[in-house]
């Protein structure tokens, strides 16, 4: 599976995994050897066998890693962390594996050794206070069914509700039907009977990006982000004492709304990055 000709020098494999996609970067002596994207992994929705099977199909590396640093969505307990670690051990046949959650990846990638509030807004959402070394405060994450405010799947729920309950005007109904179909029974079957309902809901979010300026679209975006600010950032006194950093596809796509809300709440905005990989590479060098 791997070419070991260059294995004299230690290689590090960094993985930053959300529920939709995973970025893999292989480093040797601080330099990038390989970069690959695969589907995302979530131990709350997949077994170790599912993860191994997906890796076998999608992850083709030319060089064998000596150390693996995996950061993933859904790694929120010892049990889920061990599940991912066992899957990686079975695939890579190495024991030098570190498994952490995706919010630590965001913290290390965006803040490095600085203090800050760290937020993920992608397929799912999360937030924490990072003191420059460790995560010091973090509220419970309720996942895509009961939580994930401000995320892609949260926005997807609103979009689906607006369509199904005939709230959308003719313009947005037409867009929805052209891109996602008009058979509600089929949509509901997909949502409740197929794997990864969070990804499916998040797949509706491009409707918002493609129809900016429409008052219904702007209301959905702002309402979802306000839910995130209210249920998460406003619960931390550190939000007013430190810069707030954002990462994730949703945060990046709608960064103008986040900037406006930070101004309204009198928060200091740090940076908004599509993903934290650039900072993670620097951290692990």
TrEMBL record:
Domain of life: Bacteria
Protein name stated in the entry: ATPase
Organism per entry: Rurimicrobium arvi
């Amino acid at each position: 599976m791997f070419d070991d000709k260059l294995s004299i020098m230690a290689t590090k494999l960094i993985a930053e995994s959300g529920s939709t996609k995973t970025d893999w970067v292989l480093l040797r002596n601080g330099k990038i050897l390989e970069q690959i994207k695969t589907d995302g992994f979530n131990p709350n929705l997949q077994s170790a066998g599912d993860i191994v099977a997906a890796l076998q199909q999608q992850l083709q590396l030319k060089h064998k890693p000596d150390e693996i640093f995996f950061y993933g969505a859904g790694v929120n307990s010892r049990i889920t962390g061990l599940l991912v670690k066992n899957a990686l051990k079975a695939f890579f046949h190495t024991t030098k594996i570190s498994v952490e959650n995706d919010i630590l990846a965001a913290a290390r990638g965006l803040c490095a050794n600085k203090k800050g509030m760290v937020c993920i807004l992608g397929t799912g959402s999360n937030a924490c206070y990072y003191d420059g070394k460790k995560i010091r405060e973090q509220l419970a994450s309720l996942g895509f069914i009961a939580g994930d405010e401000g995320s892609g799947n949260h926005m997807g729920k609103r979009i689906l509700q607006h369509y199904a309950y005939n709230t959308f005007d003719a313009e947005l109904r037409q867009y929805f039907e052209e891109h996602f179909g008009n058979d509600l029974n089929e949509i509901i079957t997909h949502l409740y009977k197929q794997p990864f309902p969070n990804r499916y809901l998040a797949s509706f979010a491009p409707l918002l990006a493609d129809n900016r300026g429409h008052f219904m679209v702007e209301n959905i975006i702002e309402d979802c982000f306000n839910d995130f600010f209210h249920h998460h950032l406003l619960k931390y006194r550190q939000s007013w004492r430190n810069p707030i950093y954002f990462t994730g596809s949703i945060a990046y796509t709608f960064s103008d709304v986040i900037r406006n809300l930070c101004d309204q709440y009198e928060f200091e905005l740090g940076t908004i990055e599509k993903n934290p990989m650039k900072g993670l590479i620097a951290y692990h060098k």
